[in-house]
DNA sequence: ATTTTGAATTTTGCATGCAAAATTTTGTAT
DNA sequence: ATACAAAATTTTGCATGCAAAATTCAAAAT
C-alpha cells in the first residue's frame, strides 16, 4: 500500500508575515480521522450495518491503521460503531426501537435544560431566543423546511447551552449525533409542523415568565412528540 | 459503548474433556486494559491530575503501547481522562462544580427512569424493589453504612433498569462512573441518611401506585439533594 | 542569582511487521 | 450437484521502529 507521506497539510500561502502568527500545532491525525468518520456515518455515506474494512478505509483516507483503529474505538464508545472482537467493526444500526429510546432520554435531558435555563438565562439570552423563534416562524410561514430545520435545531441547542451545564450539553450533543442519522426528521406533516412551532412559542413564554416547571414540562412533551413522529416515520 | 466482549469467563476446570469445549476466544487486550485503567481511576489509584506516562503504564500492565493508547482514547471519550495533544494524557480532575453538573443531569435521568418504571415495571419487579428497600432499611437501622451504600446503589440501578430503556441505562452508568470517583458519597450525616431512606420509601410508594409523575418528581428531588450534599462535602 | 540558549533526553504520533484468527477458496467424497 | 474438509488468503490484534515534538538539563550571559 502507498505510504501516506509527509504531513504537509497546509497549502503554502504567500503571506510571509502572517505565516509566523498562525497557530503552530497541527491536529492529531486520529482526531481528524474520528471526525471524518463520524461525519461519514451521520451523513449516511457509511450505511448502518456496513462492514468496515480497515485496510480499505485506510486507503481511502490515506492514513495507516493505527489512527484509524483509535478512531474506531472512540466511535464505538459513542455508539456509532459496533466492535466485533476479531472480526472487525460495523457501522451501528439504528432501529425504530432505539430511536424511541434516544428520544425518551433526550426529552428528559431537554426538560432539565429548560428548567435550568428558566432560572439561569439572562434577559439578553431570552431576547436572543425570541429573535430566533421569530425567524423560525418566518421560515414556517414561508414553508421553508430547510431553514426551519436549521434554526429549529439551533433553538434547541441554545436552550441546552443556557442550562449552563457543560455535562448536560455534552451528553445531549452525543445523543443528538446518534439521532441525526435518521434523516426522516425533516419529513414532518404540515399538521405536526404547525403544532411544533406553537409548542416552541409556549416554551419561550414559560422561559420568559421564569416558570421552570412549565418550561420543562412543555419541552418534555414537545421533544417526546417529535420522537413519536420520527419513530413512526422510521418504522413505516 | 458496550463492547461486546468475549464469552470466556469461566475459570479453568480440571476436567480434561470439558477443557476442549471451553470457549476459545480470549478477550481483546485493549478491552482488558480499558477496564483495568478505568478501575484504577475510579478507585482513586490513579489520582485526578496524574500525568499518564505511556511507557511506565505499559511496563506496569505488561502490554505494549498500542492497546494502551486505544484504551486511553476510550477513557477520554468517557470523560475520565484528558488528552493533551502531543503532551500526553492526564487523569481528569473532578471539581465540585463538575460534580454539581453531573448530579443535575443524573437527577433528570433518574426522574425519567422513575417515570418510565412506574409505567413499565411488573408487579414482580416492584416486589423485588420493595424487598431491596426493606434490606436498605435494615442496614440503616443497624447503622451499617457499607451495606447500605451497596444496596442503595443497587436500588437506583434497578429502577433505571426497569425503565426498559437501554440508552438511558447506558448514559446513566457512564455518568455514575464519573461520579463514583468522589468517595465522599458515603459520608452522609445521620440526618441526611434518615431523610434519604424516607425518600426512597416515598418513591417506591409512588411506583407501587403507578403514579409516574410523582415517582419522577420524588426521584428528581432525592437525587438533587444527594448531589447537593456530595458537592458540599467535596467543596468543604 | 536569574534568565536564556541550546543541546541531550524523553515522549508522543504514526507506520509497519508479524503471528493468530477468521474468511474464502479449492478440492474431494458422497 | 451438495456437503464437507483442507489449504490459501485475508484481516485482525498487538508489538515495534522511527521521526518530530516536547521536556529536561546544563552552560553561558545578563
UniProtKB/TrEMBL annotation, chains A, B:
InterPro entries for this protein: GntR_C (IPR011711), TF_FadR/GntR_C (IPR008920), Tscrpt_reg_HTH_GntR (IPR000524), WH-like_DNA-bd_sf (IPR036388), WH_DNA-bd_sf (IPR036390)
According to UniProt, the name of this protein is GntR family transcriptional regulator
Domain HTH gntR-type, residue spans:
27-94
**Signal peptide limits:** none
Q: Which domain of life is it from?
A: Bacteria
The answer to keyword Transcription regulation applying to this record is yes
Q: SMART domains annotated for this entry?
A: FCD, HTH_GNTR
PANTHER family cross-referenced by the UniProt entry: TRANSCRIPTIONAL REGULATOR, GNTR FAMILY (PTHR43537), TRANSCRIPTIONAL REGULATORY PROTEIN (PTHR43537:SF50)
Q: Which UniProt keywords apply?
A: DNA-binding, Transcription, Transcription regulation
Concerning SUPFAM superfamilies, the annotation shows: GntR ligand-binding domain-like (SSF48008), Winged helix' DNA-binding domain (SSF46785)
Question: Carries keyword Magnesium?
Answer: no
Record's Pfam families? FCD (PF07729), GntR (PF00392)
Amino acid at each position: 500500500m502507498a505510504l501516506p507521506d509527509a504531513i504537509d497539510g497546509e497549502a503554502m500561502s504567500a503571506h510571509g508575515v502572517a505565516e509566523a502568527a498562525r497557530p503552530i500545532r497541527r491536529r492529531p491525525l486520529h482526531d481528524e480521522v474520528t471526525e471524518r468518520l463520524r461525519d461519514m456515518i451521520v451523513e449516511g455515506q457509511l450505511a448502518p450495518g456496513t462492514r468496515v474494512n480497515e485496510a480499505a478505509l485506510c486507503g481511502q483516507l490515506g492514513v495507516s491503521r493505527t489512527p484509524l483503529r483509535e478512531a474506531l474505538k472512540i466511535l464505538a464508545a459513542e455508539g456509532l460503531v459496533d466492535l466485533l472482537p476479531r472480526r472487525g467493526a460495523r457501522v451501528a444500526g439504528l432501529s425504530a426501537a432505539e430511536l424511541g429510546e434516544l428520544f425518551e432520554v433526550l426529552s428528559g435531558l431537554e426538560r432539565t435544560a429548560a428548567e435550568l435555563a428558566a432560572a439561569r438565562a439572562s434577559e439578553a439570552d431570552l431576547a436572543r431566543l425570541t429573535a430566533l423563534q421569530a425567524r423560525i416562524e418566518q421560515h414556517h410561514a414561508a414553508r421553508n423546511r430547510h431553514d426551519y430545520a436549521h434554526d429549529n435545531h439551533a433553538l434547541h441547542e441554545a436552550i441546552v447551552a443556557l442550562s449552563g451545564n457543560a455535562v448536560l450539553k455534552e451528553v445531549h450533543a452525543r445523543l443528538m449525533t446518534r439521532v441525526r442519522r435518521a434523516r426522516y426528521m425533516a419529513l414532518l406533516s404540515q399538521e405536526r409542523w404547525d403544532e411544533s412551532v406553537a409548542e416552541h412559542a409556549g416554551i419561550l413564554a414559560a422561559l420568559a415568565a421564569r416558570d421552570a416547571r412549565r418550561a420543562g414540562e412543555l419541552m418534555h412533551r414537545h421533544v417526546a412528540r417529535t420522537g413519536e413522529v420520527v419513530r413512526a416515520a422510521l418504522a413505516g
